[in-house]
């Protein structure tokens, strides 16, 4: 995969195993419409006191394209029409590190698989499964929730967090440390209940 991205100059658009929604999200500057860049600059302009450096990237610039970009920016109220005009290099460097045989990738079903359906908010809450509960690294490597190591580490982390809360918020740090109780109650129920 890495070699294919290098061979394509950083682009993922020609890699068959990448889904279309990922391809739409990750584009190089040469694959983005520069009119969109000008529009986004105009949208940001309302929040900028002076001006911004707007760079235009055109593979093959012509007087017509440049004039069109300037007029689009002027109509949108940009203070700086274009700071730099970037063009694509006429030649590409030789890619010594890319193995051409490895680039012959067989199309898999990854690009054709549908992404997991997005959760939608309904009146009763989210549909679908609950999000995974984050677990500390020691709980993943241990022999399970009931092991002595994980229980001792839980007590250590709870005490450290409680001390840090007291240092930051004074003696009444109960409300600031409620998150630790919520997290650890779900991670290791037996250890959390024995500490209460």
From TrEMBL:
GO terms for molecular function: ATP binding; ribonucleoside-diphosphate reductase activity, thioredoxin disulfide as acceptor. GO terms for biological process: deoxyribonucleotide biosynthetic process. Residues 1-84 form the Ribonucleotide reductase large subunit C-terminal domain. One of its GO terms (cellular component) is ribonucleoside-diphosphate reductase complex. It comes from the Eukaryota. Belongs to the ribonucleoside diphosphate reductase large chain family. This is Ribonucleotide reductase large subunit C-terminal domain-containing protein.
